[in-house]
From TrEMBL:
Sequence similarity: Belongs to the glycosyl hydrolase 28 family.
Signal peptide: 1-22
Species whose genome carries this gene: Fragaria chiloensis
Residue positions of the active site: H249
GO molecular function: polygalacturonase activity
Organism superkingdom: Eukaryota
Gene: PG1
Keyword Ribonucleoprotein: no
Protein name: Polygalacturonase
Subcellular location: Secreted, Cell wall
Keyword Secreted carried by entry: yes
Length: 405
């Protein structure tokens, strides 16, 4: 065989195989995409796409190869959505448009939430789009400080029993209640997510979780009217990194110890975060008179920058909002192995560090190191500790448990 022929054969084999490959890829992309605005689903901008979206999810979830539900750029109304698994293959919900919830609570398809991902595995929620809860009219109903029958407003986006999944790039805007709620999930990452609501929108926690393991929140920007991140009972192995928070109420473990069916909290790492103009910094709060002894342990806050933050470092085992509990009976939540390391920046309250543990129970293995906060407001910097003997290194005297009980 001549050299020319050999080259020709190799070249045509290459051509054949590469075009076969290209068409396989094209076929794969085409068959895997379920666009709500395609003729099959018929979604149109500025109309309600609840049904088109439900139909697209149903088909995508039944696909045996990886699939993608697409909400393209544009504004769409949505009364509600339940994305229920299990699905047959990995599935992506790509939101590039703006999804708007009904501004009136009664018009939602479901009372407790707007969008729910339920029992899905290998899910990716991505895109440059927005889940707009249109909660502006609802916040006044979150009047729990004066009304014991308050609340019950819809959560923007819920994740229930979702595993091995990723939420990335999307925005949650002006939710009626919590923005994101994570319950019973495993190995779920939030990456480069944005949460936006005004500082005075009540009860609009950014990301709340409970009974979940291996949650990872990273590179995320949260500005809202309540806790940026709140960690409920039963959370284990949580990593929060590169989160910026503000406005908001800070990053909070708890409240814990309020109900009698609570689970332990352990293995929480919160690091490389920045809080700006928030009502609290990093805190652990537990109710007094807790019905059950559920420990909270192995909780580490590291490299946190505070910009004009009130109560930057706080453990409060007498947390009792709205005076609905008996502060005389100590909390039963045992707090141990907690560290606050490398906490710098400015505090807007003179009492910059407060560690008030439960009487008789005490907090164990609390470490304070490299804490350096300057007072941005008036007064004299100070700190208070009770029922705890922390190990303190490189913390200036005003911040090193200046007063003790
Ligand atoms: C969390 O996610 C980030 C970004 O994907 C990654 O770099 C980091 O390793 C993850 N951390 C854990 C504990 O999974
Ligand atoms: C404290 O927490 C760290 C991190 O979770 C863990 O590795 C360590 O074993 C804990 N220490 C004790 C004494 O439990």
């Amino acid at each position: 065989m001549g050299g020319h022929n050999l080259v020709l054969i190799i070249f045509s084999v290459f051509l054949l195989s590469s075009s076969a490959y290209a068409s396989r890829v094209a076929q794969f992309l085409a068959s895997g995409d379920f666009d709500v605005t395609s003729p099959k689903y018929g979604g149109k901008p500025n109309t309600d796409i609840s049904q088109p979206l439900a139909n697209a999810w149903k088909d995508a979830c039944a696909a045996t190869t990886p699939s993608r539900v697409i909400v393209p750029k544009g504004t769409f109304q949505l009364k509600g959505a339940v994305f229920k698994g299990p699905c047959k293959a990995p599935i992506t919900v790509q939101v590039d448009g703006i999804l708007q919830a009904p501004p009136i609570e009664a018009q939602l398809a479901n009372k407790e939430f707007w969008v729910q991902f339920l029992e899905v595995e290998r899910l990716t929620v991505s895109g440059t789009g927005t889940f707009d809860g249109q909660g502006q009219n609802s916040w006044k109903d979150n009047d729990c400080n004066k009304n014991p029958n308050c609340g019950g407003l819809a959560i923007n986006v819920r994740f229930d029993k979702v595993k091995n999944s990723l939420v990335r790039d999307v925005t949650s805007l002006n939710s009626k209640n919590f923005h994101f709620n994570i319950l019973g999930c495993e190995h779920l990452t939030f990456q480069h997510v944005t949460v936006k609501a005004p500082g005075d929108s009540s009860n609009t926690d950014g990301i709340h979780m409970g009974r979940s393991t291996e949650i990872n929140i990273t590179d995320t920007n949260i500005g809202t009217g309540d806790d940026c991140i709140s960690v409920g009972d039963g959370t284990r192995q949580l990593t929060v990194s590169k989160v910026s928070c503000g406005p908001g109420h800070g990053i909070s473990i708890g409240s814990l110890g309020r109900y009698d069916n609570e689970d332990d909290v352990s293995g929480l790492n919160i690091r490389d975060c920045t809080l700006s103009n928030t009502l609290n910094g990093v805190r652990i709060k537990t109710f007094p008179a807790s019905p059950k002894a559920t420990p909270a342990s192995d909780i580490h806050f590291e490299k946190i920058t505070m910009n004009n933050v009130a109560n930057p470092v706080l453990i409060d085992q007498e947390y009792c909002p709205w005076g609905q509990c008996n502060k005389q009976i100590p909390s039963k939540v045992k707090i141990s192995n907690v560290s606050f390391k490398n906490i710098i920046g400015t505090t807007s309250t003179a009492e910059a560090l407060k560690i008030v543990c439960a009487k008789g129970l005490h907090c164990d293995q609390v470490v304070l190191s490299d804490i350096d906060l300057k007072l941005s407001g008036k007064g004299t910097l100070t700190s208070h500790c009770a029922n705890v003997q922390p190990t303190i290194t490189r913390v200036p005297p005003p911040l090193a448990c200046a007063t003790k009980a």
